[in-house]
Structure formats: C-alpha cells, structure tokens
Design brief:
With about 260 residues, this protein is α/β, with parallel strands linked by helices. It has three domains: about 70 residues, 2-Layer Sandwich (Histidine-containing Protein, Chain: A); about 90 residues, no CATH class; about 70 residues, Histidine-containing Protein, Chain: A, CATH 3.30.1340. The protein contains six helices and twelve strands. Strands 4, 5, 6, 7, 8 and 9 form a six-stranded mixed beta sheet that branches. A three-stranded mixed beta sheet has the order 1-2-3. A hairpin with a 2-residue loop joins β6 and β7. α1 packs across α2 and α4 crosses α5. The chain is globular and about 55 Å long. It starts with a helix and ends in an 18-residue tail after the last strand. About 35% of the residues are buried. It comes from Sulfurifustis variabilis.
Length: about 260
C-alpha cells in the first residue's frame, strides 16, 4: 500500500493543476485513510466540486472518495425555506406526479407533501445546514438525476447527497447521462435546449450549438455540471444574439417556473 503522505501530496498537486478547482482561493483538505480519500472544503461553483473529486480519483492508490466539498451559496436561505422550495419543484414536476414526496428540515419536523394511494415511487427530502439529502425509490436514473438537479437549483443549497435507489435497477452509461442532460436543459427557462447538441463519452460532455447570450452559455454549462456522472464539460457553444423581437423556438415541455 502506498504511503498516505505521498498520496496526499499527489492529490494536492493535482488539485492545484486544475484551473476549475483553484485551491489557493478555495482550499480543499485531503485526508487519506487506507484506500479512502476524504475531501473537505468550500468552492465557488459546482464545476470546482466535481473536478476536485475527479482529480483525486485519478491518483494511484485511491479507491474510494468521501466528498464533503460544499459549494458557496450565491444566496443565503434557511433550511425550512430550502425544503419548501424544493418540495414545490418536485410537486410541480410532471414526472413525479405519481410519487410520494415528503420533506423535513433540521429541527423543523416533517411536512408530508403528498402520498398517493398507489404511489409509483417516493422521494424523501431532508435539509440540514444547506445540505440536501435525497432518499427513496424511483424507476429510472433520469428521475434520480433530475431530483438532484432540482435540489441544486434551490438558492442556498451547499451540497446534495443523492441516496435515491433505482427500482428495478438500471445500468448507468453515457446514454443515460445524455438523456438526463437533455431533460435538465429543457427544464431550465433560461436555456433554449433545442439549439444545443451534446456529446458524452466516459462522462465527459461536449456542448455545441447556438445560444443568444453569454449568460445562457454559462448557465447551460452549469446545468450540465449539476448532472450526476458528469466528469468534465467542454463548452463550445457559440453566442449569436437574436435580432430584436425574435427568440429561438423551444422544444419539449414547459420549464419549471
């Protein structure tokens, strides 16, 4: 077994080389116990969190990672408010209409949101110190991934721990990640999803197509980073402002308000 100090030094060096992580601005502590690496810290964005995990995962001798890296929230929101907003997202989302949804905030008791007579799956939400934990059962990987992205979209969320099980089990692959990305982009009211193409290989995503603003380009990439299983994102979207009074046509269902 390799020396823990050697693994830690290699991990810290890998974090420093990745421009998305920037450990000088957002320090990340790496502790090694046997084959397990635990990452602790706070980063500016979801891309830094995801890349930090991938950097350490690639170090020889690391077989398991405990990810305790939080994302600094752009807006401060209490746990009860986070819970209520996320419950609203899930209750309004058509793909979850036949599922039981229950929510709990630290110290705030449980708020039962919905319990159908014949529920087709369930999602349980717990919120503590800005960290959302999702539990329950759904019948597809896309449903599991979408629930986590909806949680990330709530202001004040610092991390999402997704423990939702898939019943019956499904094999995960790049096609599943691509399907989830399509679903997520179509739900974002800022994004014109029909103008964006995506290519996924080994969890690495390339985005191509047209967007109308730099903000839409940035938000499309951020949405992709929120999708579980994404290891890297190459953003090749081209910004082409639309003439006044014209907007690209959307495709798919209406986004979440």
């Amino acid at each position: 077994m390799r020396d823990a100090d050697e693994i830690r030094q290699q991990a810290q060096a890998a974090l420093e080389r990745d421009p998305r992580v920037n450990p000088h601005r957002s320090p990340i502590d790496v502790s090694i116990e046997g084959p397990c690496a635990t990452l602790t810290g706070e980063v500016a964005g979801i891309d830094g969190k995801r890349r930090a995990v991938e950097c350490v995962r690639a170090i020889p001798g690391v077989e398991r990672i405990v990810d305790r890296v939080r994302v600094a929230p752009g807006e401060s929101l209490g746990d009860s408010a986070i819970r209520d907003k996320l419950c609203g997202y899930l209750l309004d989302e058509p793909v979850y209409k036949r599922m039981a949804v229950s929510c709990r905030a630290e110290g705030g008791g449980e708020t039962l949101s919905r319990r159908p007579d014949e529920a087709e799956g369930r999602i349980e939400i717990a919120v503590a110190d800005g960290v959302v934990t999702l539990r329950g059962e759904v019948f597809s990987l896309s449903h599991r991934r979408l629930a986590a992205v909806l949680a990330w979209w709530v202001p004040g969320v610092r991390d999402v721990i997704n423990e939702i099980a898939i019943d019956p089990p499904e094999e995960d692959n790049d096609d599943e990640i691509s399907d989830a990305i399509e679903l997520v982009l179509d739900k974002d009211p800022i994004i014109h999803a029909g103008q964006i193409a995506r290519h996924v290989r080994d969890g690495r995503v390339v985005l191509r197509g047209l967007v109308t603003t730099e903000e839409e380009k940035r938000m499309a990439e951020e949405d992709v980073w929120y999708v579980e299983g994404v290891r890297d994102v190459v953003n090749e979207l081209y910004v082409q402002p639309m003439p006044a009074g014209r907007e690209p046509m959307r495709s798919g269902p209406a986004p979440i308000a």
